[in-house]
Write a structure and sequence with these properties.
The strands form two sheets. A six-stranded antiparallel beta sheet has the order 1-2-3-10-5-8. A four-stranded antiparallel beta sheet has the order 4-9-6-7, with no helix packed on it. It is globular. The protein contains five helices and ten strands, in the order H-H-H-H-H-E-E-E-E-E-E-E-E-E-E. Helix content is 27%, strand content 34%.
Amino acid sequence: MSDLDLLTQSLARNVKRWRTERGFTLDSLAARAGVSRGMLIQIEQARTNPSIGTVVKIGDALGVSITTLLDYEQGPKVRIVPADQAVRLWSTDAGSYNRLLAGTEAPGPLEMWDWRLMPGDQSPSDPHPTGTVELVHVIAGVLTLTVDGTEYHVPAGASASFEANTPHIYGNDGDLPMEMVMTVSVPPVR
């Protein structure tokens, strides 16, 4: 079985598990997440490989991290993720990518990401729930961070934080690859 098949099956099990634990119907989760009921059915039946944006929306609506949605079961209190097991969820032909390095519930979802954006590439993100905060630290190049229509330039060695409940875009307008580490903290579902 391929890694993608394992991820698809884990996502199917965990979306259904967390939806049931939260007492959400397919319709109520679809409304909270802003995705169609049909998409949720396909995900829960492991018949589709949804976009990262869709997985983020479902995780946000359920109040769990992407790591939790992709995990087979809850692990021990200390969890080491080997480099070769970091999950690549988005990539471009130019060589841009993001990898989910680690995540936990603390008390809401908390995720750490490794990003690489090649010159000219960008990755837009829909707004997350109110109270979501993102932290970025640029390792190489310059991040062009657009938050709610305002553009910020974050050079190598610098960090930024922002409330992520508005549309935002990670971009590389420079001539060199941009590399950063990002942390996302989502408040728990109430």
